[in-house]
Amino acid sequence: MFEKGEYVVYGSKGVCKIQDISHVDIPGVDRNRLFYIMHPVQNSEQTVYLPIDSNKVMIRKVMTPEEAKRLIQDIPSIEVLEVPNEKQREASYKAALHECSGRSWISILKTLHQRKDERLAAGKKVTALDERYMRVAEQELYGELSVVLGIEKENMHDYIQEHIASA
Prior knowledge:
By secondary structure, the chain is an alpha+beta fold. It folds into two domains: 7-60; 63-165, CarD-like, C-terminal domain (Methane Monooxygenase Hydroxylase, Chain G, domain 1, Up-down Bundle). Helices cover 43% and strands 17% of the residues. The protein contains five helices and five strands. It has helices spanning 65-74, 89-98, 102-121, 128-149, 156-165, and strands at 7-10, 14-23, 34-40, 48-51, 59-61. It has a five-stranded antiparallel β-sheet with strand order 4-3-2-1-5. A hairpin with a 7-residue loop joins strand 3 (34-40) and strand 4 (48-51). Helix 3 packs antiparallel against helix 4. The N and C termini lie far apart (37 Å). The mean pLDDT is 92.
């Protein structure tokens, strides 16, 4: 169980801060059930309710600063995604995102950057699907790293590039 005040990564909502653990007074909801009451860091106006006994959505503690720095150092050795064919491309991206881990987000980003370079070299455009998943993976990765390392999300790309270059 997580604690009040703790930061967690919650499914597609990204990093959230647990504001309270309480029963909720919402019509149709069991009043005896405990919920995490959270606010996404990127949208603190939004409130997210998650039953503490739910196993339908991935929720985990944010990585530690040490884990974040190690993840950044490992970027060059993280493999690209295996995409069997074009029809399964989106399913591969979705499956990797569903893992809700920094390594899988980096794998998606490396795959998409490689694909982008190949398409542009062949005189083709980047697909809307690839652009969408690149934004989502960056949002997830940069969101968690910025909270953990105390660096503005907008500066995260440059921070990562600097640390890869100096490794």
